[in-house]
Design brief:
This protein starts with a helix and ends with a strand. A hairpin with a 5-residue loop joins strand 5 and strand 6. By secondary structure, it is mainly beta. It is built from one helix and eight strands. An eight-stranded antiparallel beta barrel has the order 1-2-3-4-5-6-7-8. It is 11% helix and 71% strand.
Length: 153
């Protein structure tokens, strides 16, 4: 499990250098799954979202996702900007089967969320849900949801 997590983190960090980032944020997401959340702003309302998390659903699962997201402003009042975001991406899940064997699952992911960013603060709060459709090794549907906090650097 440690080897998989190390490789996932290495992949995640190398991905940031390829994106020509204008704005980077890191934080946590609590829910299903629970773990680390990263975004890289690409300007014009588009950004990349990465997650490295531990899924507590049924079995011990290591969860990694990458999404291309777009956002639309909803409100800009009382020092807080509220945005709706939506997109498409993928999830890789290391699913622990019985007997200690691991199975890799690949899914399409369609997230939808709200973010709340304070104007004079680097802190962003968010709530997100994502529809998932496993495509490998079999076809199944699932749903992830969580709340989180990110710090913009």
């Amino acid at each position: 499990m440690f080897k998989k997590m190390f490789l996932s983190v290495l992949f995640l960090l190398s991905s940031f250098s390829l994106l020509n980032a204008q704005n980077f944020a890191a934080g946590v997401i609590l829910g299903e799954p629970t773990g680390l959340s990263f975004t890289v702003d690409q300007g014009r309302g588009g950004f990349w979202d990465f997650g490295l998390a531990y899924s507590l659903d049924k079995n011990d699962n290591l969860h990694f996702h990458v999404d291309r997201l777009w956002s639309s402003p909803l409100a800009n009042e009382n020092g807080m900007r509220t945005r709706l975001y939506y997109g498409i991406g993928g999830r890789l899940l290391s699913h622990e089967k019985g007997g200690g064997d691991d199975e890799l699952r690949l899914a399409l992911r369609a997230p939808l969320g709200l973010s709340f960013r304070f104007r004079r603060s680097p802190v962003e709060l968010f709530v997100e849900g994502a529809l998932l459709m496993d495509v490998v090794p079999s076809t199944e549907t699932d749903f992830n949801a969580g709340v989180g906090l990110r710090y913009h650097f």
